[in-house]
């Protein structure tokens, strides 16, 4: 099954785009007309370039506002089409996408639309070209796939078929199950795009907010299964209009795009990715910083090797450096080799020593076993790791971790922090032992907010948060102090047991139907990394997101050097 992408997905000019598409490893492209019109290359030149890069040209698009028009407009449209057929002949493209009309010239007449598309298909067939008719979700009269199918069926021409675009079908809430009645040979092309669930004008939604599969809210595996069930054997091709991708490095976007398609192909039971081996928790996390040792020692860790610090079942590696960050996340895999092969099949860059690079720059290491448990400590292991990525990259980054590690996404949270809204998303493995979270500012504008990357943190598990906080403070740990307003509000909302103790120890608290969550934080190291200690009681599965604004405000106060009063 060929994998393709429309040039409109990527930033730059046609030469940038084609180079990026080929380098990522796609098989083919849809040439978007505007990219060709503005290119200095002739259509023959573009054909040669694609051939040199090993890319097929699978579609020429879009041809607009053709059908159901008065005779004079039809004549002009056919003339326009003949010109495009000339271009396609030079390009070596054999399928043209015709999208449903938005023109004022069009009338609401399916017979006329079918008759005129039949005429167009006749002209196309003479040139060895096929017409793929696509219902735009905002088409004037034809805006659902079932309507476009009725017209194609009525036109009844072998050179006329359908283009199905997941966005147009799913954005309108059409039931995709009807796809099953369309014969596969009448499906000429399949375009794939995901999108976040938004309530807005469908054209704006489509032109600005489409995402690659797996990054939005649509059920693309279900959609693709239905299409493949018809016998469709053409390319799976991405068509994503997105303001961010239009500005971002096309090489990076193309890799993220292909990864999303590889994951989707696996989700529909095709392709040959090595399955994600089950995970058995965290092996270690590696932190680069100038000054972590003192903090870590006060939390109760003991140095057990050159750079290795352990406590209970938790292991840290500390490396000295100015660029404070979580450098490596080590997970325990039941088959580290398979985990690595899967990561590399999903286009992760291999690193020396067997780890791979995630798109956010973090290394992901796969270890064969859990760290040996050293003598009892306050901590029993790593509960979760919270990484950061710029808002524009977070969807791709989160998809990478999810796909490589075989994690399941958890519900997203959004909360108001001192410098704007923050979105928190996370994913968890089947065994509930590996949780990866991403917290990102949803917008960065102006220079009032501090110009620092979003912080990252490592959360350790403890069976007794109150005892741990006391012991750590006694050992000199600098823990985040939380103000009284928080505890007064907490009392009003949840009236937790031992409120006074929580208050005295600056422990945050959350509760849901499944259980309770007690957690506290260290100060921030190097402006970037901090630690959290968490106690989960019962089946609480969240991260205390409700408390994040409190934590952020307290960290902010520390950054400013303000003394709590
Ligand atoms: O936004 C558009 O105009 C447009 C054009 C071509 C497509 O295939 C499509 O899905 C949308
Ligand atoms: Mg489309």
TrEMBL record:
Gene Ontology biological-process entries: 3,4-dihydroxybenzoate biosynthetic process
Matching PROSITE patterns: VOC
VOC domain boundaries: 381-523
Co-factor requirement: a divalent metal cation
MF annotations from Gene Ontology: 3-dehydroshikimate dehydratase activity; dioxygenase activity; metal ion binding
EC number: 4.2.1.118
Residues annotated to bind a divalent metal cation: 134, 165, 191, 239
UniProt keyword annotations, A-Z: Dioxygenase, Lyase, Metal-binding, Oxidoreductase, Pyruvate
Pathways per UniProt: Aromatic compound metabolism; 3,4-dihydroxybenzoate biosynthesis
Catalysis performed (reactions): 3-dehydroshikimate = 3,4-dihydroxybenzoate + H2O
Binding locations of Mg(2+): 384, 457, 532
EC category: lyase
Superkingdom, natural source: Bacteria
A Pfam cross-reference name: AP_endonuc_2
Family of this protein: Belongs to the bacterial two-domain DSD family.
Function: Catalyzes the conversion of 3-dehydroshikimate to protocatechuate (3,4-dihydroxybenzoate), a common intermediate of quinate and shikimate degradation pathways.
Protein name: 3-dehydroshikimate dehydratase
Protein source organism: Actinophytocola algeriensis
Taxonomic lineage from the root: Bacteria, Bacillati, Actinomycetota, Actinomycetes, Pseudonocardiales
């Amino acid at each position: 099954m060929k994998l393709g992408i429309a040039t409109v997905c990527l930033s730059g000019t046609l030469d940038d785009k084609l180079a990026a598409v080929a380098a990522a490893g796609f098989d083919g492209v849809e040439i978007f007309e505007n990219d060709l019109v503005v290119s200095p290359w002739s259509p023959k030149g573009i054909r040669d370039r694609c051939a040199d890069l090993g890319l097929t040209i699978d579609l020429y698009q879009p041809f607009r506002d053709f059908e159901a028009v008065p005779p004079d407009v039809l004549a002009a449209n056919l003339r326009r089409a003949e010109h495009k057929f000339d271009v396609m002949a030079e390009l070596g493209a054999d399928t043209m996408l015709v999208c449903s009309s938005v023109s004022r010239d069009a009338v609401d007449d399916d017979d006329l639309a079918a008759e005129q598309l039949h005429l167009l298909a006749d002209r196309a067939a003479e040139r060895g070209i096929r017409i793929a008719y696509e219902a735009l979700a905002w088409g004037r009269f034809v805006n659902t796939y079932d309507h476009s199918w009725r017209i194609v069926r009525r036109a009844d021409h072998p050179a006329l078929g359908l283009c199905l675009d997941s966005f147009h079908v799913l954005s309108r809430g059409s039931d995709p199950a009807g796809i099953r009645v369309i014969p596969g040979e009448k499906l000429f092309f399949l375009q794939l795009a995901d999108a976040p669930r938004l309530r807005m004008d469908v054209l704006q939604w489509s032109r600005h907010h489409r995402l690659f599969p797996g990054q939005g809210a649509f059920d693309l595996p279900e959609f693709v299964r239905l299409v493949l069930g018809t016998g469709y054997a053409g390319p799976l091709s991405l068509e994503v209009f997105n303001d961010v991708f239009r500005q971002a490095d096309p090489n990076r976007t193309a890799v993220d795009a292909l990864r999303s398609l590889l994951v989707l192909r696996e989700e529909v039971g095709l392709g040959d990715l090595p399955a994600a081996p089950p995970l058995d928790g965290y092996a270690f996390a590696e932190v680069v910083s100038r000054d972590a040792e003192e903090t870590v020692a006060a939390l109760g860790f003991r140095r057990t090797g050159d750079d290795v610090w352990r406590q209970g079942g938790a292991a840290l590696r500390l490396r000295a450096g100015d660029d404070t960050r979580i450098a490596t996340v080590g997970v325990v895999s039941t088959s580290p080799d398979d985990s690595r092969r899967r990561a590399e099949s999903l286009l992760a860059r291999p690193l020396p020593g067997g780890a791979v690079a995630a798109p956010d720059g973090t290394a992901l290491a796969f270890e064969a076993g859990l760290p040996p448990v050293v003598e009892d400590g306050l901590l029993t292991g790593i509960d979760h790791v919270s990484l950061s990525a710029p808002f524009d990259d977070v969807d791709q980054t989160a998809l990478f971790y999810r796909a490589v590690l075989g994690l399941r996404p958890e519900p997203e949270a959004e909360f108001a922090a001192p410098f704007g809204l923050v979105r928190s998303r996370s994913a968890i493995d089947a065994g509930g032992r590996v949780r990866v979270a991403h917290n990102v500012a949803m917008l960065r504008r102006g220079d009032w907010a501090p110009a620092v990357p979003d912080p990252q943190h490592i959360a350790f598990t403890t069976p007794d948060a109150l005892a741990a906080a006391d012991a750590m403070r006694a050992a000199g740990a600098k823990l985040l102090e939380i103000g009284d307003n928080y505890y007064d509000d907490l009392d009003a909302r949840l009236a937790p047991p031992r409120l006074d103790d929580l208050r005295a120890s600056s422990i945050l608290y959350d509760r849901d139907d499944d259980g309770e969550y007690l957690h506290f934080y260290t100060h921030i190291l190097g402006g970037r990394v901090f630690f959290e200690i968490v106690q989960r009681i019962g089946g609480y599965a969240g991260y205390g997101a409700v408390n994040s604004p409190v934590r952020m405000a307290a960290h902010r106060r520390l950054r400013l050097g303000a003394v709590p009063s």
